[in-house]
Amino acid sequence: MTFAHLNRRVHLYLGLALLPWFFMYGISSIPFAHTPFFDARDAARKLPLWTLRMDRPIDMDVPGPEAPVTEQRAFGAALLSAAGIEGTSFGVYRQSDSQINVYSYSFWNSAQLKYFIPEKRFTVEDRRFRWDHFLTGMHARGGFENESALARSWSIVVDLVSVAMIVWIASGLYMWWGLPGHRRWGWIAILAGTMSFLVFTWRL
Amino acid sequence: MYLALFLFPWMLMYALSTLVMNHRAYFVERYGTGAIPFEAERAITYDGVFTENADLRTISQQILASLDLDGAHSVNHRKDGSIVINRNDLTTPRRLTYSPTDRTVVIERMVHRPNAFLERFHRRRGYAAGYRLDTIWAVSVDLVIVAMVFWVASGLWMWWEMKVTRRLGLSALILGAATFGFYLMTL
User: Fold this and answer.
1) Does A142 touch chain B (CB under 8 A)?
2) Are B44 and B106 found together in one domain?
3) Interface test with A, best of B2, B5, B70, B140 (most A CBs within 10 A)
4) Are B180 and A20 in contact (CB under 8 A)?
5) Where is pLDDT greater, at B129 or B154?
6) Is residue B118 situated within a structural domain?
7) Of the candidates A3, A106, B146, B147, which lies 20 to 30 Å from A68 by C-alpha distance?
8) Which strands form A121-127's sheet, in the order they lie side by side?
9) B57 and B106, same domain (yes or no)
10) 3-state secondary structure labels for all residues of A111-122
């Protein structure tokens, strides 16, 4: 097997294996790029985005603003457990001195929990399902903050897709160079793209 | 092929910025939590005159244009009466604070961090900025979206045309689709 052959096969099989992710990142970029359109379309339905599921008192040990991330996440996990939400990814955010928010997220369901420190009370609100949020949620999913092995394995795939994109660029350039008949127009495309991109970098 | 050659800088930027965003925890550990700080660049006395009843947007555009910094920005009023303009420059975001009482403009620039630069690039999109170059950028982002969907379709077609790769290709395709489906059901 020659290097050119190996290069073509890597380009192809990597592309086929990661095709669902590549397609998802393409399609899910539409609601990101056209957020006002999707928001206006949804607003016309006049449906509330959040629905209150629970509002009850609870006395919890609240970590301070400077507490380590592990303590903040332990608080978030305890609050989620009190709400009967298990196994989702989540983030903990100190909204103000008197309020901590915990966002629970899966591809299909999302909820926000608000803990009101002085009142020792918390609320749970469910977010209505929206296809554009489903897509943008999938697009934005990543990071290694969540403890779940499954969530982390998704983030490893995100890394793999990113590296694969660099491999596709390099292997694509190599394949193009192997076609002498396309070099002239190829150079024009590369130069036009690079120049445009540099102008955007410089002027935006 | 030519579309891919033209758009390769965009794809490279999206790949690198995704890696950076996926490993945000590393950068938080390195730089700490909280907003990226600004550092003083210069302070000037602003001599310009605003028209009567000029709105915030008109004022911010006039100040930015006079400093040769016009471009996508947001603007708001502080309680003390000063006007804060956040110029969303890709390479060097700036904060300009105009105090009407003493007519000074304090210009600060955001401390440079490579991860933040890539993240700004990744997130730059939309047609609402009101500047021609931003609109052209938004069109280029739409072009990348169309290209990605086109590459999926054309890639499948090219693979299917190569009979020798069908068996292994189908295995790769099924493995990928099954893994993706599994994540869809469980995450």
Assistant:
1) yes
2) yes
3) B5
4) yes
5) B154
6) no
7) A106
8) A50-57, A121-127, A110-116, A99-105, A89-96
9) yes
10) EEEEEECCCCEE
Q: Which fold has domain A50-127?
A: Double Stranded RNA Binding Domain (3.30.160)
Burial class (CB in 10 A: 0-12, 13-18, 19+), B169: buried
Bridge partners of residue B109, in order along the sequence = B39, B94
Q: Do A17 and B152 touch (CB under 8 A)?
A: no
Residue B99 maps to a domain: yes
Q: Is A181 exposed, middle or buried (0-12, 13-18, 19+ CB in 10 A)?
A: exposed
User: Which residue in A39, A63, A41, A15 sits closest to A167, CA to CA?
Assistant: A15
Question: Which domain covers residue B7, as residue numbers?
Answer: 2-30+129-186
What is the residue whose two structure tokens read 């130069």? A191
Residue B166 has pLDDT above 80, yes or no: yes
Q: Do A33 and B9 touch (CB under 8 A)?
A: no
Q: Which of residues 5-24 of A touch B (CB under 8 A)?
A: 9, 12-13, 15-24
CB-closest option in B126, B173, B187 to A35:
B126
Please give chain A's pLDDT, 204 residues, in tens: 899 999 999 999 999 999 999 999 999 999 999 999 999 999 999 999 999 999 999 888 888 877 788 888 889 999 999 888 887 889 888 888 889 999 999 999 999 999 998 888 999 999 999 999 999 999 999 988 887 899 999 999 999 999 999 999 999 999 999 999 899 999 999 999 999 999 999 988
Q: b/e for A33-65, b at 16 or more Cβ within 10 A?
A: bbeeebeeebeeeeeeeeeeeeeeeeeeeebee
Which residues of chain A are in CATH 3.30.160 domains? 50-127
What average pLDDT score do residues B112-117 get?
93
User: Residue B52 pLDDT > 90, yes or no?
Assistant: no
Q: What is the pLDDT of residue A145?
A: 83
